[in-house]
Design a protein that fits this description.
This protein has about 475 residues and is of the alpha+beta class. The chain folds into two domains: about 1-165; about 210-465, Lipocalin (Beta Barrel), CATH 2.40.128. About 30% of the residues lie in helices and about 30% in strands. It has six helices and 24 strands. It has helices at about 1-20, 55-110, 115-135, 145-165, 170-195, 270-275, and strands at about 30-35, 35-40, 45, 50, 210-215, 220, 230-235, 250, 260-265, 280-295, 295-300, 305-310, 315-325, 345-350, 350-355, 365-370, 375-385, 390-395, 400-405, 410-420, 425-430, 440-445, 450-455, 455-465. Strands 7-8-9-10-11-12-13 form a seven-stranded antiparallel beta sheet. Strands 5, 6, 22, 23 and 24 form a five-stranded antiparallel beta sheet that branches. Helix 2 runs parallel beside helix 4 (about 145-165) and helix 3 packs antiparallel against helix 4.
Length: about 475
Amino acid sequence: MKAVIAVGLLFLLQNAIAVDPTVPGARDEPFANVTGSLDNHGVCQCSVYLPDTTFPVQKVETLEIIAQMLSQKVDIELSKVSKYTRAIEIYEQKILNITLRVESMEKTSISYTELDFQLLKIEITEMNKLVTQLKSTLTGSNVVVEQLFEEIRNLSLLVNGLESLDKHNILAIRREIVALQSKLKDCERDRNQNGTTTPHLPPGSCNHGGIRNISQPYVTQLNWKGFSYKYGAWGRDYSTLSPNKDLYWVAPLNTDGRYLEYYRLHSSYDDLLLYKNARDYRVQYGEGSGMAVYKNYMYFNAHGSRDMSKLDLNTNTVVLRKTLPGAAFNNRFSYAGVSWQDMNFNVDENGLWVIYSTEASTGNIVISKLNETTLDVLSTWQTRQYKPSVSNAFIVCGVLHATRPVNTRKEEIFYTYDTNTGREGRISIIIDKVMETIQSINYCPADHKLYVYNDGYLLLYDLFFSPLLLL
């Protein structure tokens, strides 16, 4: 490039020296002559007209300045081209990395958040700005830049599409949770203004007058194994030593609705929501969706028997197995609409319980308080409520609460049995559900919530209690 400019400059300089158009009488020829003549002495005389011999120094200096400026511009443009070439290589690698991340999201769809999408959008916007700058500085058509610009545009469309699809509705669910919590606070504020306050209960407290109402369901998510795993249970571990400790568990049964084989643990509620930091385990074998977790142990009915199993969650090892005396098993007296739940383990403020039936009780509900260390039966209560007519049951502060279906979208808590007094009762508290069948209900004294497994969906409910009546 510089050689071409130098040749052009030399050519212009030669022409400037040869012909100066500003000199009067100047012609295209470098010089001119005329016809000669004889003087008085007979000597031949000739006249020659030479061009202006003044050298055009000013014009040459101007040309030199212009040539220097052109040379500097060429150097700058060459530097830009080199810089943008390196930048294109860097951003091509970034596009490749982002493409791999997007492909991973498409395949798994289980670990992305709104922040992930925002970061992707920021990176794509930055690359888009760079390519726009490249297009404005490089004259003419550049195939590489045009192709890069098209890839960035397609990638942006793909990210927007992924965010809108959101296969597991994680973002929508989290927004819905925030909205529901806001509505709940408004509702609680209205109740406070009306003078019907709900007492604040610390973890493990029974300082109330019993369940008064229940919230709308918070749809946490679909269980991690998918919609086909309709049967199972989930909940939060409760320990009197560390009531605020977080350990969430999800245990979907196999698709036959009988075998407990796999379960998953999360150390926080956020991890559970986002399917993050999960610990998956396998056990052989539990039966039915009546399992519960207490003090880092899972309790369940051993497959094909009337035995109770105690599983250490730290080692995934069954550390104890003991027969529950007289318990019916092999789907003899399971809940209505839910098979194989002959034993329903429960945890409340007082410890570990099991709900079941016996042949002697002719299928009516039997409640036993267990020693969680030895699985010995400490006390037993027999009710007059037929177990196969109940859809599920749970215990709060020693009071059994039984449910039954009203229709495909509503359930009713209709029966109670207070082990503290031995009294039965009839109530009517409506539970909204998202699917037809409730497979399990687990109560956690740490937060006073119900953890419901509803045809594969994990639902969460707040309980509202009446104030304790002082006599």
